[in-house]
Amino acid sequence: MNLKRQLLLVSVLTLMLPWAGYEFIRETESALRGTQQQMLAGTARALAGSMTRFQEEFPVRDATFAPGDQLYIHPLGSRPSIDGYFDDWPLERDSLRTMRGADGPVHVALGEFGSGIYLYVEVVDRDVVYADSQSIILDAGSRHADRVNFVSSSPPYLDETIAFAAEAPGRILSYKQTAYGFAPEPAITAFWQDVPDGYQLEARIPSALLGTHLGVVVSNTDDTAKPGVRSSSFEGSTPGQAARRLPDLDAVVVSLVQPGMRLLLTDAAGWRIAAAGEIDNESMRASGSGFARRIYDLLVESGKEAAFAQPDPQGREQQTYVSSALSGRETAAWFRSDESGRAVVAVAAPVQANGATLGAVVLQQGTDAVLSLTNEGLARLINVTLITALVVAGVLLGYATWLSRRIRRLSIAAEAALDNEALQSALPSALAEDEIGDLSRSFSSVLKQLGDYNDYLRSLASKLSHELRTPLAIVTSSLENLEHEPLNEASMGYTSRAREGADRLRRILAAMSEASRVEELMANAEPEAFDLKSVLDSTITAYRDVYKDRSFSFDCGIDKAETLGSPELLIQMLDKLVDNAVDFSVDGDMIKLGLTPADESFVLTVENPGPPLPEKMRTQMFDSMVSMRSGKNTKHLGLGLYVARLIAAGHGGSIEAHNTDGGVVFEVTLPHA
């Protein structure tokens, strides 16, 4: 793990510092919310007890009908227009009751405004069949049509149906069926509106014409000869009692609700029969940044979405805590809005009389009165903590970047100093007063000593050649004089071997002084323009004659290679490379030479099969007195490739060596003329 990641990890650990504060806030929020729940529970219990005085106002639940057989009549705040559209109803679309139809869903809504009951029905129908003179009244005879029947009854006496069928879109006449027959009902206003996927029906019916039990039956036929499919809002033969807000109980709950609270009253089936009050709008208003709320959500106990705290749009409260209250158990719950982050505490208490549960009192209140997201101190703590953590992380990351960049520059400079022929002892950060400055100065000292040692090694060959030449001349002249003296056979053998050793030592001294001579020649030689390709052609022909146990190939893709320099020195450089290739190959091997053009230069290659170069020697093999030979080749002093490098550099080029598949290739780059 690099330095930046380490310091970044340390900066992340700074988030542990405010954790104790978060834990305290979380525990405090939970404790205060619990206190608020207890307070609301006591209030709801008291309200439920006071409701027993109005037990006669509560609807008596008829066990004959399931709650699903009942329709809810919504109180409307304004009068809808009878035009077949729902957009002017003061209700949301999720207030519509959904039934299963023949071709798709059927949506139904009932509302009450003034003395009228408003009916809205949406039917998905692929093929609308209109009524005619024979089928306009309840599919008389064998003729059938699409229609909506509004069933009204007051058991056990009243049982009648209001039928809606259209001969064409627009205002239609409704028919009322009683035990005595059918009759048009002019007091009912209805409108049939065609839509692309079916039709919509809207009607206003005077409340006086209806009973207590209401239901909707939709008949959908695709053939006038068939009655079609019936979709009903109730399971049995008659609908259940319609549920609605009761004005008397509404007046009671309005007098009991406290500011900032919402009070709902339900019957035994959960239908809302009274409601008053609203949760304080501040409870549902966003506070602080959304990012702070997300962090808070991770810390505090999560609650259900606040939409569950809203009154059920279809009129029946079926939340878990309300169902528990209708079963006789007082229950509390809390909710939180995903949009605003505000919390709502809710309590449901059963209303009981004579051992029976008449309904439930639901009391809801926002949590602004206690510690929650509206607490400005909490918002400031979260914001300051996050900002501090981000600042610390940014500072540490910036410091790590600066520090790692200094170390990286020092590392690159040290590697570059080792790669260069002349070691550079000046490194970055040498003037700094910190540990990196100490490290840079230590590296500089080591590089300086290493450079001095390399300079000594480079001059060692010429020094030895100069110092040993005179003693060698004395030894050689003494041996020559000794050969003219009368010697026995044994002495003559010793003298011959001494003479051979002196000759060998002379050749070694000549090789050692060769580098110095090359440097002098490069300094004094007059560069001339010549064709490198022609020089190579003639030289390679000579190699074929000298090294007859090797094969030579020359691959050149250009006709002429004009360069500037000394042909003799370049041939000497090539001699060193070919001699090296011969030494590291065996009889019969192919030595490949090539010349290719490059950007403003030529690339001369010498490739031979043989053992690969050790990785550690690739940067040292062109240094003075460095040899990779062993066995019979130990007589070499490691000066050949060093001389080759001097000649290449003297011509403004460079030389490199690489491993290939089964061999080694030397590349010499020479500039154009």
Could you explain how this protein is built, in words?
The structure is a single chain. The protein has helices at residues 3-13, 19-51, 247-256, 290-299, 320-326, 376-419, 435-483, 489-524, 532-546, 567-583, 640-650, and strands at residues 72-75, 97-100, 105-113, 116-124, 147-154, 158-164, 170-172, 174-178, 181-184, 189-195, 198-206, 213-220, 229-232, 243-244, 261-267, 272-276, 304-305, 331-336, 343-353, 356-366, 528-531, 551-556, 562-565, 590-598, 601-609, 654-660, 663-671. With 673 residues, it is α+β, with helices and mostly antiparallel strands. The strands form 5 sheets. Strands 1, 2, 3, 4, 7, 10, 11 and 14 form an 8-stranded mixed β-sheet that branches. The chain has a 6-stranded antiparallel β-sheet with strand order 9-8-6-5-12-13, with no helix packed on it. A 6-stranded mixed β-sheet has the order 16-15-20-19-18-17. Helix 7 crosses helix 8 (489-524), helix 8 (489-524) runs parallel beside helix 11 and helix 10 packs antiparallel against helix 11. The chain is elongated and about 165 Å long. The protein starts with a helix and ends with a strand.
